[in-house]
Specification:
This protein has 134 residues and is an alpha+beta fold. The chain contains four helices and six strands; from the N terminus they run βββββααβαα. It has a six-stranded antiparallel beta sheet with strand order 1-2-3-4-5-6. The protein is globular, with a radius of gyration of 16 Å. The C terminus is likely disordered.
Length: 134
């Protein structure tokens, strides 16, 4: 039987708790980037409560994500194998951020949101922040 190693046990607008190996780990939700059909991905930036570690998680269609993550022969091969079997694949990636990187990103995100007149959701790529792209 497949048993996930990580289970979401609680979530609200500002915090979430996951069980990792049976132990609860609480995260503050710093930013949420909803799924967009334009970018074909979604993301979240969280701060781990016990360590203060900030991490950007993103998931999306393999065709989009393979261009945005560090190249991996294995990842490309597995996505290709699953696709040939007619299966849809999603790629999940993470990037640790320093407080300084997050603060810089947050500042650029606020500027982008302030200058956006439409109701189009702002994504990390809107900020053109290379620190979030790799």
């Amino acid at each position: 039987d497949f048993k996930p190693h990580v289970t979401l046990t609680q979530r609200d607008i500002t915090f979430m708790t996951v069980e990792v190996g049976g132990k609860p780990v609480r995260f503050e939700i710093l930013q949420i980037f909803p799924f967009s059909s334009d970018t074909k991905r979604m993301g979240i930036i969280v701060r781990r409560e016990d360590t203060g570690t900030i991490t950007f998680y993103v998931k999306g269609a393999d065709a989009v994500m393979l261009k945005r993550v560090r190249f991996s022969d294995w990842l490309e091969e597995e996505c290709g194998n699953l696709s040939r079997e007619g299966l849809r694949t999603l790629v999940v990636a993470s990037k640790p951020l320093t407080q300084r990187e997050y603060d810089h990103f947050q500042s650029r995100l606020q500027q982008a949101r302030a200058s956006t007149l439409s109701s189009t959701p702002v994504s990390p790529s809107t900020c053109k922040s290379s620190s979030m792209d790799s």
